[in-house]
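Lecture notes, continued. The same structure-token format from the folding unit now serves as the input rather than the output. Read the line below as a description of shape only.
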């Protein structure tokens, strides 16, 4: 039976790669994002492989999210996978010099947006039952803090704990919940964070062989394809080049 995935933030990076991978496997796709021209390009690119519907959507707008879901017609009204991918980081400055508007945008997108979509889709996922999956894109930043991470780290810690608590609430429904937490990854995400600073982007990834969006897409496909009896609660991924460092010690 053909499966259907609902992907937020599908116009670039992890979301786009996941759309391509699921289309290759013949899944029906509901692709959302804020850039209509990219959604149009995706629909044209993938339309020969699977059934695709796109929706220009800001996940921060709860009413718009609910309207999108209310308008889903067969076969898109039965959801097997919710991939909560939409999210962003803004700025690398220490907390004392950050722009509070950047903090608000991260909280509204990474927390409020994720909860808006999840809550609106829960009835459909519960109706689907065993085998249905929620995969939340967390980050190692949710567990391992770093200078300049401040609010971004906090939002990803929320994603991890929300995933665990949601799994408790969904016990007995058959719906699975996973927190997928990548480490150093190469995507448009970093250009957004640095306001398009290509030099900073290149410096971050130089010689590191970071995670690629296609790696995350394969991981998402594997998680969503596991037997219904299995749930991966937390999956943390790093490139081999990335590891932990000693604690920082400030000395007078």
């Amino acid at each position: 039976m053909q499966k259907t995935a609902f992907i937020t933030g599908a116009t670039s990076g992890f979301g786009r790669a996941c759309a391509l991978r699921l289309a290759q496997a013949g899944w029906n796709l509901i692709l959302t994002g804020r850039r209509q021209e990219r959604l149009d390009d995706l629909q044209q690119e993938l339309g020969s492989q699977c059934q695709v519907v796109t929706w220009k959507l800001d996940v921060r707008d709860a009413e718009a999210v609910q309207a999108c879901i209310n308008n889903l017609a067969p076969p898109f009204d039965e959801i097997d996978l919710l991939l909560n991918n939409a999210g962003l980081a803004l700025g690398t400055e220490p907390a004392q010099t950050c722009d509070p508007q950047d903090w608000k945008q991260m909280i509204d997108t990474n927390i409020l947006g994720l909860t808006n979509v999840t809550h609106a889709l829960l009835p459909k996922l519960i109706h689907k039952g065993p085998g249905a999956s929620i995969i939340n894109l967390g980050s190692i930043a949710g567990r391992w803090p770093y200078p300049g991470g401040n609010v971004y780290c906090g939002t990803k810690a929320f994603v991890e704990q929300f995933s665990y608590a949601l799994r408790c609430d969904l016990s007995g429904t058959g719906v699975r919940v996973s927190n997928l937490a990548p480490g150093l990854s190469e995507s448009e995400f970093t250009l957004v964070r640095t306001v398009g600073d290509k030099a900073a982007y290149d410096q971050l990834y130089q010689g590191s062989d970071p995670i690629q969006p296609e790696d995350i897409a394969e991981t998402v496909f594997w998680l969503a394809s596991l037997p219904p009896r299995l749930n991966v609660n937390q999956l943390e991924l790093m490139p081999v080049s990335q590891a932990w460092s000693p604690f920082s010690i400030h000395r007078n």
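Point for the exam: The longest strand covers residues 176-182.
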